[in-house]
Amino acid sequence: MTAPVRDATAPTTPASTAPTLREAFHQPKSVWAIAFAATVSFMGIGLVDPILPAISSQLDATPSQAMLLFTSYLFITAIAMFFTSWFASRIGVKRTLLVGLILVVVFAALCSFSGSVTEIIGLRAGWGLGNALFISTALAAIVGATAGPSGGAIMLYETALGIGMALGPLLGGLLGSVSWRAPFAGTAVLMAIGFIAIMVLLKHEDRPAPVSPVAALKALSNPALRTLALTAVLYNFGFFTLLAYSPFPLEAAAAARGGEFGAMGIGGVFFGWGVALAITSVFVAPILTRRIGLVPTLLGTLGALAVLMLVLSLFHTSMTGLVVLIVIGGLLLGIMNTALTETVMEATDLPRSVASASYSGVRFLGGAVAPAVAGPLAAATTAGAPYLLATGTLVLAMLMLVLGRKHLASVGQHHLSDVEEAAAITAGDEV
C-alpha cells in the first residue's frame, strides 16, 4: 500500500464502531468505480489458472514453461512493490491507479494476440507491474474517496476482494472453454471499463506524504519484519505451488480416468478454492487470532498446510482427492494470509505502508520461485514431488517463525481497531 497523508490503515471512526451494511454500500460513485476495478484486478490473480494446460498443449509448451506465466508476473510484482509507495508519493494516488490500470489493459490485450508462450511470459511481466501499482494504491484510494466512515468503504473493498478471488478462476474457465485467448481479452475489456470509471468519477484525492524510494528496502533491517518476511517467502512457495501447479495433476488425473478436466472444470475447482479463501480470511481468521493469538494461529495454520501438502503428494493421482484438498487448502490459506499480514502490522513501529510494501515485495518472490521450480521438479521426478517440496518449505517457515519469535514480543499486546483489522484482511489477500 502507499503512504497517503491520511493513512489507509488509520481509523477515522472510533475503534468500537463497526460499519453497517448501509455505510458499506451507500458510497460515492468514485468508491464504486475503484471497487469495480479492484474486483477485476483480483479476478486476474486466478484467471490464468484454468487455461494453463490449454496454453501448454496449444502453444506446444511444457507445463514448466506455462507456469512461468506466474513467475514473470509475480517477480515483477515483487520488485515493484518496494517502490510503489514512492511512486504514488511523486505522482499522486489517482494517477498511480490509472497508470496501473492502463498497463494491465495493454499487456492483457497483447497476451490475447500472442503466438508463443515466451511472448505471454514477457507480457505477463508488464501485467504484474500494472497490478502492483493498482493493488498497492487501491485501498488508500477507496478510503480517501469515501464520504462517510472509512470502515464502510473498507468493507466494500473486502467484498470486492472476495468476489474477485472467487470469480477469477470461474471466469477463466468459462472464457477458456471458448479459447485460451478469451480470458486475457476479457480482462483487458473489464479493466478498460474500470480505467474510464476512475478517470471520470474519482475527483478528490489526498496527497501522499513524501516517501524515500528505498524506504521499503531499508525496513528489512528491522528484525521483526525480516523474520515475518522470510516466513512469508517460504509460505508463499507453498501457496503458489498449490495455485499454479495443481491444474496439471488435475488434468492428468482426469486423463487417467479416460476423461478431460478442461478449463471449465479447473475453473470450478478454483472457484471453490477462492470462495473458501475469502470466507476464512474475512470471518474465521479474526476469530482465531483474537482467541488464541496471532503467532499461535500462524504456527497452527502452517502446520495444517504442511500436512495438507504431504497428503497431496501422496494422493496426486486421485481426481476426487485433489479437488477436496485444493478447496481445503483455500480455507487454510485465507486464515494464513490475514493472520500473517496482521502480525506484520503489529510487529514493528514502522509506518504501516512501508512495512506492508517491504513485506509484500519479499513474499511475492516466494510465489515467483514456486512455479519455476515445480514444473522442472515434476518432470525430473514424480508429479507428487512439488507438493513434497512445498511441505518442506512450510516446515521451514514454522522453524523461521519459532527462531525469530523473540523479535515478535510486541505482537498480541494490543488488538487492531476494526478498521485496521479490515485493512489487514484486504492487504493479506492482495496476492
* Whole-number tally of structural domains: 1
Stretches where pLDDT falls below 50 for ≥5 residues?
Answer: 1-18
Strand content: under 5%
> How would you sum up the major sheet?
none
CATH topology: Growth Hormone, Chain: A
Number of helices: 18
Whole-angstrom Rg: 20 Å
> What is the share of helical residues?
over 70%
Assigned CATH class: Mainly Alpha
Overall pLDDT confidence:
86
Strand/helix succession: HHHHHHHHHHHHHHHHHH
What is the CATH superfamily?
MFS general substrate transporter like domains
Shape: globular
- State the secondary-structure class: mainly alpha
CATH architecture annotation name? Up-down Bundle
The first-to-last residue Cα distance is 13 Å
Per DSSP E runs of 2 or more residues, the count of β-strands stands at 0
GO molecular function, one term: transmembrane transporter activity
Main location: membrane
Protein name: Arabinose efflux permease family protein
Subcellular location: Cell membrane
Could you please describe the fold and organization of this structure?
By secondary structure, the chain is an all-alpha fold. The protein has one domain (21-428): Growth Hormone, Chain: A (Up-down Bundle). It has helices at residues 21-25, 29-47, 52-58, 63-81, 84-91, 93-112, 117-145, 150-176, 182-201, 215-218, 223-245, 247-256, 262-292, 294-314, 319-347, 352-380, 385-403, 418-428. The radius of gyration is 20 Å and the shape is globular. The protein starts with 20 loop residues before the first helix and ends with a helix.
